[in-house]
Amino acid sequence: MLRGRSLSVTSLSGLPRWEVEELPVEELLLFEVAWEVTNRVGGIYTVIQTKAKTTADEWGDNYFLIGPYFEHNMKTQVEQCEPVNDAVRRAVDAMNKHGCQVHFGRWLIEGSPYVVLFDIGYSAWNLDRWKGDLWEACSVGIPYHDREANDMLIFGSLTAWFLKEVTDHADGKHVVAQFHEWQAGIGLILSRARKLPIATIFTTHATLLGRYLCAANIDFYNHLDKFNIDKEAGERQIYHRYCMERASVHCAHVFTTVSEITAIEAEHMLKRKPDVVTPNGLNVKKFSAVHEFQNLHAMYKARIQDFVRGHFYGHLDFDLEKTLFLFIAGRYEFSNKGADIFLESLSRLNFLLRMHKSDVTVVVFFIMPAKTNNFNVETLKGQAVRKQLWDIAHSVKEKFGKKLYDALLRGEIPDMNNILDRDDLTIMKRAIFSTQRQSLPPVTTHNMIDDSTDPILSTIRRIGLFNNRTDRVKVILHPEFLSSTSPLLPMDYEEFVRGCHLGVFPSYYEPWGYTPAECTVMGIPSVTTNLSGFGCFMQEHVADPTAYGIYIVDRRFRSPDDSCNQLTQFLYGFCKQSRRQRIIQRNRTERLSDLLDWRYLGRYYQHARHLTLSRAFPDKFHVELISPPTTEGFKYPRPSSVPPSPSGSQASSPQSSDVEDEVEDERYDEEKEAERDRLNIKSPFALSHVPHGKKKLHGEYKN
């Protein structure tokens, strides 16, 4: 039996405690298989890319990623090299000799992991034979017209072939293979059907059928145990894909998923309870200067303010220093991403701010890509007018400064009535006239192709948020990903997030939720829900999430209207905070980034690998279950300062005062809070093992 240093792990909420032995990685080979290796499609790319450094640091040259070959990705992201590992080199050579095209190199990301890339098109001539192999293995047939599924069959067959070659030349080393999502699942099915000596893990980041059902506005969480799975998959013409996903789940030694909420979903959709929950993390980079992220917030906020000056020219009757920037971003899934409930809550927030005669203005950005023709002419004109005014102001300032300088040199106090001549006044008056506009500021920056049926624009028309002067909530739909080369808003996504005050992501279907996690790492508060993996994770690990800038809307056990009211109260409470309170909250939010660092969350994956080795090779590896547990799971405590949530002691209207800020200063000891949080994060960390027999509650409403 292989033995190493003992590693004890305790699960959350008094669940079983696992004691395992640290793996001798020098005697193992680890392969991660995913369609998104070097190939950005969605969130799995982020998972693999950000986790690569932590895994490569642990496994060294025994860690490999397997993915598809695309020429443009290979040229820009991969440095070709020869395999150092003998088993891998032999496998690559053997496949190339038999008519395949296998590429090997280092992926040029942090950690520089080795990648094995298969050219799908080059091996397509084997498709019919491999369809027969899949039918013999699990009786699943793939229609000829489903090109994506056919590509996955080729990719999976090449993966199984490669793993067979590796195990034939492994020289006693044990192989662990982790497969991400149904796209990589065929490789797992064929490997198990051929009885390859490998330990397998299958990770689902979202169930195939779950995403389809939620997109159709079905009361999903309230009817999880009532769906006729085969019928639903068949009606959506994805039955063969569903069968591939379900077969992968049941063939794997260990089945994992990314969150507790997805674990419940997977148990009903895929008929197997996940063995381990493996939350998604990020590569957290700490600044050497403690408050550097606050400086970045101020810098990028100023750039967003410049855009707002241009967009609202002629209607800029609100104070930008008392303006809050909120945003929602992601795929254009109107209901799944919570854009519906967000817009409704904005209408109610607008009413509250107007009723209380607040001087706070809220500008909300919707960064959700949709089909467009081009930029909106009025939006482009706004930025041109802003730039023209800026140039005029600088020109007049130069002349003013020169006259002032000359007067002071002569020892005179200049006459302010004469320092500006008639031409200067004329230029300034013309500039003022140029800012007049007859129309309201546009609610979208682009010309939408489906303007009349677009869900966001249709809802804006219904609730009447047209950026009127009297509206305290202004809306801007930017139906395109952000880019630093854009003529409208020249900012990258990360820069834009840092410049905003709050990210709002009230999703109904969100297996994990990288957008609020990215906000947290950058020190920006965010709104999430208890139906997102991120929201559930924060509820589990933080005693008072709101105090740390994580607002969690209950969309699971409340009606749609109640959830909307709760979100409105969160937003209104945020508007009532003083500048000092927002700074305190951002400091707390940024400290949570340690909780999302792969250096900590990577051990969930370590636990899954221990477990799969003990099941695949029980005579060489073991995991002992010890009960009862001896320690509690880690949890961030409530901040010691009063109130626990920065908005908790605010008056009923969003007014702030210097006295209030002084009182808050007395309550808040940042260094003491930060030191306590640093010590807490080093406490024993919990690994989430889904308990068997524990009854799960379903949501009572679809909202």
TrEMBL record:
Q: Where are the transmembrane segments?
A: none
Pathway(s):
Glycan biosynthesis; glycogen biosynthesis
Gene3D superfamilies, alphabetized: Glycogen Phosphorylase B
Where is region (Disordered) located?
632-703
An example molecular function term from Gene Ontology annotations: glycogen synthase activity, transferring glucose-1-phosphate
One GO BP on record is: glycogen biosynthetic process
Reaction(s) the record says it catalyses: [(1->4)-alpha-D-glucosyl](n) + UDP-alpha-D-glucose = [(1->4)-alpha-D-glucosyl](n+1) + UDP + H(+)
Q: Which CDD domains match?
A: GT3_GSY2-like
Q: Name one Pfam family in it.
A: Glycogen_syn
**E.C. code:** 2.4.1.11
Residue ranges under compositional bias (Low complexity)?
Answer: 647-657
The UniProt keyword set, sorted, is: Allosteric enzyme, Glycogen biosynthesis, Glycosyltransferase, Phosphoprotein, Transferase
Output compositional bias ranges, type Acidic residues: 658-668
Q: What GO cellular-component annotations does this UniProt entry give?
A: cytoplasm
Q: What does this protein do?
A: Glycogen synthase participates in the glycogen biosynthetic process along with glycogenin and glycogen branching enzyme. Extends the primer composed of a few glucose units formed by glycogenin by adding new glucose units to it. In this context, glycogen synthase transfers the glycosyl residue from UDP-Glc to the non-reducing end of alpha-1,4-glucan.
Q: Which family does it belong to?
A: Belongs to the glycosyltransferase 3 family.
Q: What is this protein called?
A: Glycogen [starch] synthase
Native organism is Piliocolobus tephrosceles
